[in-house]
Amino acid sequence: MTLPPRRTSALLLGCALLAGTLAGCGSGSGRQSGDALTVGLVAEPATLDFSGTDGAAIPQALLGNVYEGLVRVDQQGRIQPQLAEKYERSADGLTYTFHLRKNVKFTNGAPFTADDAVFSIDQVKTRWKLKVAQQMAVVDKAVKVNADTVAVTLKHPSNNWLYAMTSRIGAMYSRTGVGDLKNHPVGTGPFTVGSWQRGDKLILRRNADYWGVKPQLNQVSLKYFKDAGALNNAMLAGDVNVVGAVQAPETLSRFADKSRFQVIDGSSTAEVVLSMNNSRKPFIDKRVRQAVRYGIDHEALLKTARFGRGTLIGSQEAPTDPWYAGDSNRVPYDPAKAKQLVKDAGAEGTVLKMRIPNLPYAVSAAQIVKDQLAQVGLKADIEPLEFPARWLSEVFNKADYDLSIIAHSEPRDQWIFADPSYYFRYDKPAYADLLKQADAGPPQEESDRYRAALRMLSQDAAADWLYLMPNLMVADAKLQGLPVNQVGEGLEFAGVRWSGK
Amino acid sequence: MYLIVRKTLTLLVGAFAASFVVFCCLAVLPGNAAEVALGTNATPDAVARLSEEFGTDRPLLTQYADWALGLLHGDFGTSYVTHEPIGPRVADRFGVTLWLVAGGMLVALLIALPAGVLSAAWHRKPRGTLLSALSQAGIAVPAFLAGLLLVYVFAVRAGALPAGGYVPLAEDPGEWARHLVLPCLSLGLVQGAALSRYVRSAVLSVQRQDYMRTARAKGARRWAALCRHGLPNAAVPVLTVLGLQLSALLVGAIVVERVFVIPGLGDLLLRAVADRDLLLIQGVVTVLVVAVLVVNLLTDVLYRVVDPRLRSR
Questions:
Q1: So where are chain B's domains?
Q2: Nearest CA distance, B34 vs chain A (angstrom)
Q3: Which neighbouring-strand residues pair with A69?
Q4: Model confidence over A267-288: pLDDT tens digits?
């Protein structure tokens, strides 16, 4: 039995209609050029208020774009003036005098004055509850000298404080603009928050009254993807112009077409640390910790697990730190020596609890670490834990682990090894003292002291440093001016432009 | 009427029972909202302080009772992490997921009805076998894989449709439709393949019935007999499967939302679990449970519309 001709034609018509709908959808696609930019990122902010909510995503979107500080950090990691035209440090190191830029306005129309600067510094001490706010505890008082001069007195000299002022705690708020920080941040930056669709995108618009060089872009959309694969597809399809953070370097081959894409491979401040629990067996013995460092072929690991993208480091340091010591803290691959050290410590065959977060970079590195440790007589049992909740609870807060792998992304975070209650459980007063001296001493001696401290950390094998994460981005080939290195907390768009415009 | 009241009561009891079970499961999950919120900035002190602020330091039963009492007043509570009221947020996201599920169902029906009926009518012919084999193959493809393939073909290669994202209907209806085509297709193709199997077997079984033979004997042509007498009778078992499939579509939507970056309920749920945002998880799960129960209720009511024999009972 066959279909009557009438029905066959109806069916064909139906198919044709469906195809027509699909084809009709081809017009008006989301590809952009001109003055707008769409950036794909992976972690979405929970709120827009970094004074009340933690997480790197908020300063990443807002610092340097919406908010500005008195000082900022440049691409080489140096401190530069921003809302302060210049600043002076008193001879005793206790007082910093900031001379503020004139004719700066907040996006709510209010002028930026010394009163706002004093207000911003004070509120970090009084209103902020987050741990980052403790960096402001060293401030004794902030005083208005005149309408555009502020004097900040510290309780003791501190080089770290000035650096901290380049981070979110140094953001300048308007006294009349803090009513709804979670949704409507008010700052002096080149952009202002246009709209925010939770779960989807945050739109920044050009600030027409910006005091500095006005950005060429009039709109930047930050689009948040939960899935790195979906983000890559959006880039290939032209829905986004920049992949803000490439999660898996092996996917870079999809962007090989140089006429369409450029790959930006800069430096970051995220040290991927193979953490060892210094407070329990077997890592309470320095020889076993050293054996781990000698027993891992870091070059092979970087090649296999990260397709060679990243920088090999030997201590808690990044190339953009002023005290970066190059390769001098790195340890050569020497399995024979590692084997001997394990034997001397009587730790052969020890079973190690390797509890790692279920993040791709940690999982891929863990397998290689496990294989290489097995060759020097240590047996690691890998247990991936859900990140963040479970890993934070078990490893970070309870320190119930022997080995773990995690990227410590904060800039200049060498202090984490000075706190014996931190999950490394590394207790070395001499190291903590060196850090204190570096902070309180004259600025010209700061780098030498940090260099000595980081050398101590490396020789003591407080942990092993697998590699430094690259700042890996994919961008449209016609884009210029994207920040290459990730140095501070913000991802700044003021200097980004489309070429040929 | 009595039936609807009884079913609604079952629904309410079911919803609360489910929410309690979910709450208990969450309670034994390691990690808590305060630890996640503080991240690597946590100190035992800070965690304790934040737990107190969130109210997560209270006994679990108290927390559940508070939440359940609020729900009776229509209040879903406030998120621990974002401090937003949960009700409007869940409602907003549910709207997105509903469009996705409705579109997926439409695609599934558009595929399953013709494919199922035709493959039953042609079941002795090679083209019937071919249709049947195609639907078998369709069932074997998971929705997320279908989604990835569709993205590759239509977005990455052809550039005809966006690879992901969502535009609200009120903002731009054209873009809204463009963004929903691929997700709805990837949800619907697989479900449609499965559904066509049920349609096929239902149609096959009614074709062997006496009343079909009688209709043909009275001179009705084969297709006329099938449309007038066969299909209404085949509808009852298909309706049962349809109800179950709607629930499956809700679950499938969670995966598809991730592939296509759609801010729906599934995306909200995954995020809430990662943040250990207990009340938000509760809110989402309760809405999902109620949605499934409502679908079941509607299926029951529809039986009576389709099958007059059930109305007298």
A1: 2-86, 88-310
A2: 10
A3: A171
A4: 999 999 999 999 999 999 999 9
CA dist list (Å): B13 to B6, B8, B16, B247, B289: 11, 9, 5, 19, 11
Q: How far is Cα of residue A61 from the mean position of the Cα atoms in its chain? A: 11
Tell me the two tokens of residue A122: 């004070």
pTM of the prediction?
0.83
Mind listing the pLDDT tens digit for each residue in A354-395? 999 999 899 999 999 999 999 999 999 999 999 888 999 899
For A:414-443, CB contacts with B below 8 A are 421
Specify the length of chain A in residues.
Answer: 501
What percent of chain B stands above pLDDT 70? 98
Q: Are strands A379-385 and A351-357 parallel, antiparallel or unpaired?
A: parallel
Q: How far is it, in rounded angstroms, from Cα B48 to Cα B30?
A: 16
Q: For residues B278 and B26, is the Cβ–Cβ distance under 8 A?
A: yes
CATH class name, domain B88-310? mainly alpha
Write down the residue that tokens 């019937």 correspond to.
B128
Contact B86, B279 (CB under 8 A): yes
Residues of chain B positioned with their CB less than 8 A from the CB of A421: 43
Q: Which residue is it, tokens 């902070």?
A: A439
Supply angle C-alpha B299, B300, B306, rounded to 5: 80
* Closest alpha carbon within chain B to A200: B263
Who's near B170: CB < 8 A, 6+ residues apart?
Answer: none
**Which among B39, B41, B181 has CB closest to A25?**
B181
Q: Tokens 């401190």 correspond to what residue?
A: A79
Q: How far is A114 from chain B, CA to nearest CA, in Å?
A: 31
